[in-house]
Specification:
Number of helices of chain B: 4
Largest sheet of chain A: 2 strands, antiparallel
Strand content of chain A: under 5%
Structural class of chain A: mainly alpha
Oligomer: heterodimer
Structural class of chain B: alpha+beta
Largest interface: A-B, 71 and 76 residues
Distance between the termini of chain B: 36 Å
């Protein structure tokens, strides 16, 4: 055997033979088995959702894809209101020529799938001039979104082998799937800050990994999955900071995550008021000295300032001024706002109208539609793939029982809650601020004459780790065997719902 | 024997047992019946769902739609019609494409209001840019359902009535079978789902196996390991 060949063989062996003492593998082995398995299940579900949902059929997915394409090809954000064409030439042909547009929300229409049509599209792509994919400069309704998620996805767009349009969508969806895995991992870490036992931590993380809407949203191109991953990361960092104490490094990390949320979605602004609360909780719990406090405050302020500069740059790239963000934020110029009406609106969202209340503004959507149907159980594709109604009824009953159980656990173990006030304050503030933000945005939109309540189930995705912690608290309060049985029942129920959703989507698009 | 009856599984075993039993019950009670439900085996939907109406007068008036892809699995044509209080038809269907021609007839029948499924001879190979014509040989005007201008129309299709362009496109579905169980269609569905993707039908089968078998097993093991870990750890909460 020539020497070069034996050398090449040795190199190959080095590459392909796993060495268990290699640092990366050792790190992998340090990941607890339950987390490894939950990550594997989440990855399988995410990939499955990306396959059973026809391309560009997720919520606003065609617009998100167009944003990524334009940003990746030109380095610019598409305009929300102007521009010559909303889509690049390849996407336009796929939507209007090959029929993906008429597929949207029409249950009896199928996407093209014959090899003849696939070859025809490939031939069309090969005739396109250079730069054609990025021509979609607007108007694109999601052009008002900040660019962080799209910049992340643009990496996948540029790196897709072959650079074919549908290959790119496949890769973009995989990139969303990676964010879902990050969300699951951060949820595990956050739950680890709350629970000392493994089972509640596993149940909390399993809920995030198996909730059908989380899997579905990770299988399409949509920035909500990044925002959810950021929330999970923030929750973990905040809980860890509260446990270990405030340092300037931790303050910077928390502020950086907040900036990332703000640069991802308008709804990321709901994290801004949580940041000072998280920092204050950590400060109150550990009472660092004046110098450390000042360094933490300075680190946080500098990070936020840098984030603001980036935001301004992104806003100017999007067409200037306050055009970044959509209706959730840009209703400030309208004057209609009545605190009493807002409180009445929130009450009627969750509970029946009281006698002295005027009817809630806008369409009749509330807890049942947004929380139960569109989030806990899920409605998929572009609102046209859904479960039978008894499933939503069952989920509503289970959610009610879960809420009562959580309340009871809180009352029975109030001493533990009081002793661990710091994580309780952080978790509750994170959830309440998001809900308050959504309610205020929805109320302002409706009070100022709009007919869109600006709240849908997927906006609740960031609540995933918090719901998981809630489920974990109930499980932790039970005797161990009962806890194991109940945790298993909850998670296998969610898995069954996820697989059902996959089956319904497969049948809707590909039967 | 008595000790076997008094067997109390540990928390980990109990968690795995609950996952296994509940998942098996779900498979038997919901998943298998779902796989046995009947569904249309669609070949393609050249135009969208019927939402508008067009009049097709009798005595040989011809309505044609272009831009249709045919193939070996396109064995039925489905259109939606209403004949009012009169008898339907007879109708002639003419499928045409490069190197392909198929004719079918719908015999005169009683009043009809709904879908009509007509078998056609399939094309020997996939061929694009074909056309389909419906000729009303009956004595009375027939209402044919179509797609109004807008998002539901196809850029490749154009509908004409006796050669004159129509704003409304004829609503049309090509079927492989009018009815088939989801189970019998799984292979085709995985093949369809992997089209326009760097993914093969075989890989889709493997993924389905991972979802249906791997995920519940992984969940059972994860919960079992977590519960066992807690049991072996000192009680701290």
């Amino acid at each position: 055997m020539p020497r070069w060949m034996s050398s090449a063989r040795a190199t190959r062996l080095r590459v392909f033979t796993p060495r268990l003492d290699r640092p990366s593998l050792a790190a992998l082995r340090r990941i607890p088995v339950p987390l490894r398995l939950l990550l594997a299940v989440a990855a399988v579900l995410s990939l499955s959702w990306s396959l059973v949902t026809a391309q560009m059929q997720g919520y606003d997915e065609m617009d998100h894809v167009a944003y990524v394409a334009h940003l990746a090809e030109t380095g610019k954000i598409p305009s929300a209101s102007g521009g010559s064409s909303p889509y690049g030439l390849d996407q336009n042909e796929a939507l209007y020529g090959f029929g993906w547009m008429r597929l949207l929300q029409m249950r009896n229409v199928r996407p093209p799938w014959s090899p003849t049509e696939e070859r025809a599209f490939r031939a069309f792509e090969e005739r396109l001039p250079d730069g054609a994919p990025g021509k979609g400069d607007g108007p694109n309704p999601v052009g008002k979104n900040p660019p962080l998620y799209y910049a992340y996805e643009a990496i996948g767009w540029k790196l897709t082998p072959g650079g074919h349009f549908f290959g790119r969508i496949f890769v973009l969806r995989l990139m969303s799937g990676l964010l879902f895995l990050a969300m699951v991992a951060f949820s595990w870490l956050a739950a680890g800050e709350v629970f000392r036992r493994r089972l509640p931590q596993t149940v909390a993380t399993g809920l995030v990994a198996l909730l059908p809407m989380n899997g579905f949203m990770s299988g399409i191109v949509n920035p909500d999955i990044l925002l959810a991953a950021i929330y999970a990361g923030f929750l973990w960092a905040a809980l860890r900071t509260a446990r270990l104490g405030l340092t300037w490094q931790r303050a910077v990390v928390l502020s950086l995550i907040t900036v990332a949320a703000v640069l991802t979605q308008g709804r990321g602004l709901a994290l801004v008021p949580v940041l000072p609360v998280a920092l204050a909780v950590a400060w109150l719990k550990h009472r660092p000295g004046l110098r450390d406090t000042l360094r933490s405050a300075a680190g946080s302020a500098a990070t936020l300032l840098a984030g603001f500069v980036v935001y301004r740059l992104a806003a100017s790239a999007a067409g200037g001024g306050a055009s970044l963000y959509g209706g959730e934020v840009n209703l400030g110029n309208s004057s209609a706002f009545n605190i009493r009406q807002l409180l009445s609106s929130i009450w009627q969202f969750y509970l029946p109208k009281l006698a002295d209340m005027s009817p809630r503004l806008g369409p009749p959507v509330g807890y049942r539609q947004i929380f139960v149907e569109q989030y806990f159980a899920g409605i998929f594709s572009s609102f046209e793939v859904y479960f039978p109604y008894w499933v939503y009824d069952l989920v509503q009953v289970c959610a009610g029982i879960g809420l009562v159980a959580l309340y009871t656990a809180g009352i029975l173990r109030w001493r533990t809650v009081a002793a661990r006030w710091a994580p309780a304050v952080i978790v509750a503030t994170t959830a309440l601020m998001l809900l308050l933000f959504l309610h205020v945005a929805s109320y302002r939109a409706l009070a100022n004459g709009g007919d869109n309540p600006l709240v849908v189930g997927r906006y609740l995705l960031p609540l995933g780790p918090i719901l998981g912690i809630g489920a974990g608290i109930v499980v932790a309060a039970l005797p161990r065997r009962l806890a194991a049985g109940l945790g298993a029942l909850l998670l296998v129920g969610l898995l069954a719902m996820s697989i059902s959703g996959l089956g319904l989507s497969l049948e809707r698009f590909y039967a | 024997m008595r000790s076997a009856l008094r067997w109390r599984p540990g928390a980990g075993a109990l968690a795995a047992l609950v996952v296994g039993v509940v998942f098996a019950l779900w498979v038997l009670g919901k998943a298998l019946p779902f796989l046995g439900t009947e569904t249309q085996a669609t070949f393609s939907t050249p135009t969208a769902e019927p939402k508008a109406q067009m009049a097709l007068p009798g005595k040989g008036t011809r309505m044609c739609t272009s831009g249709i892809t045919y193939g070996p699995s396109a064995r039925y044509v489905e259109i939606t019609v209403r004949s009012g209080r009169y008898d339907l038809g007879p109708l002639a269907l003419q499928a045409r494409a490069q190197g392909y021609a198929a004719d079918a007839t719908v015999r005169a029948d009683g009043p009809k209001d709904g879908v009509v499924v007509v078998p056609i001879r399939p094309a020997p190979r996939g061929v694009r840019q074909g056309s389909l014509c419906v000729v009303n040989h009956g004595r009375h005007t027939l209402t044919v359902f179509g797609v109004p201008p807008g998002r539901g129309t196809s850029a490749f299709s154009a509908t004409t009535i006796d050669g004159k362009p129509s704003q409304i496109q004829m609503s049309l579905t090509l079927l492989t079978k009018p009815s088939a169980t989801v189970r019998s269609r799984l292979g085709a569905m995985f093949r369809h789902a992997s089209s326009f993707r760097p993914f093969t039908a075989w890989e889709a089968w493997i993924l389905a196996l991972l979802v249906a078998v791997g995920a519940p097993v992984a969940l059972a093991v994860a919960l079992s390991r977590a519960a066992d870990e807690d049991e072996s750890a000192p009680r701290t909460e």
